[in-house]
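Translate structure to sequence.
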């Protein structure tokens, strides 16, 4: 596996971890707001929206690099 493939794979992993963390925090805040009845949050947070947008852009960039032959799909999936 090339260093570039490792880097892009790591970026995907970190974005997925960040999205997961935001989801967990939102669930915790909702639970807290239900218990304390003091916090109101929207269905989608701006941070979560930005993370999803970043994830889509990285996926698009990865696909472009695969199509150009710069990255190998097999290496990314490992």
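Result:
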């Amino acid at each position: 596996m090339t260093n570039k493939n490792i880097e892009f794979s790591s970026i995907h992993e970190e974005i997925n971890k960040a999205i997961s963390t935001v989801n967990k925090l939102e669930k915790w805040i909702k639970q807290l707001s239900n218990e304390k009845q003091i916090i109101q949050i929207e269905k989608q947070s701006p941070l979560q929206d930005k993370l999803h947008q970043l994830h889509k852009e990285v996926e698009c960039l990865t696909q472009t690099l695969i199509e150009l032959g710069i990255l190998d799909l097999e290496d990314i999936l490992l």
